[in-house]
């Protein structure tokens, strides 16, 4: 009986350490190529934002994103010729928030393209909507003492 209880305890610990079914399902949906079609703000106004410490809203709109969930890596490509174009590599870590919706927060960290080593910089983003053809990320920032949400809208 004691061995059975120990065995069940070990099994429970192993299963609780794995990725939940909800996150695994979401990873299947997020896999592939997406276009960052638009960026909006929760408050009206004109904002001079630099997203992911990389480029402006104008540069990011129309960028192409590729997610490879089996190793939590990806690349986005800025195509706007008035901006610094090219590929930018990243890794992402998923943290489940709501098991009912499957939506979660994640950490996106830029990487060195050749070595895939992470930088010391990361960006916490909230996955606020996900379907087979649309995805929305939200990032909360502080602007002059007030909270502002940046909505990044993707299409597949």
Spell out the key features of this protein.
3 helices, 156 residues, Lipocalin, disordered N terminus, alpha+beta, two-stranded antiparallel sheet
The backbone outline, from C-alpha atoms, is globular
CATH C-level: Mainly Beta
Distance between the termini: 53 Å
Q: Calculate Rg over CA atoms.
A: 18 Å
**Structural class, from helix and strand content?**
alpha+beta
Unreliable spans are 3-18
For the record, the CATH architecture stands as Beta Barrel
| Tally of contiguous helical segments | 3
Q: How many strand elements?
A: 10
**Could you give the order of strands across the largest sheet?**
1-4-5-6-7-8-9-10
The biggest sheet amounts to: 8 strands, antiparallel, barrel
Provide the CATH topology. Lipocalin
Mean pLDDT: 80
How many domains, as an integer? 1
Helix content: 10-25%
> What percentage of the residues does DSSP assign to strands (E)?
over 45%
Which series of helices and strands comes N to C?
HHEEEHEEEEEEE
Organism: Confluentibacter flavum
Protein name: Lipocalin
């Amino acid at each position: 009986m004691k061995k059975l209880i120990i065995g069940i305890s070990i099994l429970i610990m192993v299963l609780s350490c794995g990725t939940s079914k909800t996150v695994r399902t979401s990873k299947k949906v997020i896999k592939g190529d997406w276009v960052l079609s638009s960026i909006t703000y929760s408050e009206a106004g004109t904002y001079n934002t630099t997203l992911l410490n990389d480029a402006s809203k104008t540069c990011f709109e129309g960028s192409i994103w590729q997610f490879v969930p089996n190793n939590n890596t990806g690349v986005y490509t800025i195509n706007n010729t008035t901006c610094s174009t090219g590929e930018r590599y990243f890794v992402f870590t998923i943290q489940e928030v709501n098991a009912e919706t499957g939506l979660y927060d994640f950490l996106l960290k830029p990487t060195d393209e050749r070595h895939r080593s992470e930088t010391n910089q990361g960006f916490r983003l909230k996955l606020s909507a996900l379907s087979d053809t649309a995805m929305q990320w939200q990032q909360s920032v502080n602007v002059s003492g007030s909270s502002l949400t940046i909505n990044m809208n993707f299409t597949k």
